[in-house]
What does this fold into?
Amino acid sequence: MLKKRVIPVLLLRAGQMVKGVRFADFRNTGNPKTAVRIYSAQDADELVFLDIQASLQSRRVLVEILREAAKECFMPLAAGGGIRTINDVRELLRAGADKVVVTTTAVTNPQLLAEISKKFGVQSLVGGIDYRYEGDLPKVWIRCGTERTDLDPIEHAVRLAELGAGEIFLNSIDRDGVMDGYDLALAEKLAQLVSIPVIVCGGAGNFKHLADLLKGTQASGAACSSIFHFGDNNPIRARSYLRNNGIVCRNLK
It folds into this structure.
């Protein structure tokens, strides 16, 4: 049985960690290098770095952070934000990322995913999906939630898997930073339709939300940010809670 993962997400802007609500109203949450040391000491399953600025300068900062993180921890590292070319992927992998998260370009140039998968392997590629609802219908959004598409996130996820993504990172804009629970219905529907791991992000406010996702759906991992930034919580406590609720997690060192 695959072990479920608890994955802290670090949003980066201008070299600092930030957190917002529904992809807006961002506030500073600290130094990412300090966070890396803390999460490493707390034995997180992996870390995801997402550069929401996606400029040339912010890319340089992301690369520097990855290099430092790779020196200090042994957990898998994923990085995304502004990936448009094979060279962008190569730069992040050389800096220490184990995999890259491709979100906007997965819509604007989906063939790049096939190229990444062929050149670096499926294990190096995560297909990112940001979505929000219009009535009862979810739609994929790109460019950090500023541009709507007509894509259905389920159909889009199936396509990304066909193109060579090794994982899907499903991120709810509606639930981002709200801390009232994950979108379990869509997470389960998607996880049933693709044969690759699905990481779900957006909505974690307490450990029960993590358990609801990891026990109630076939999702492989719970990605979270606010729960660790704004509460007295950490990955060690989260994993202990999950194991006590019958969810198979990685053993601590």
Summary: The two ends are 20 Å apart (CA to CA). Residues 46 and 76 are 5 Å apart (CA to CA).
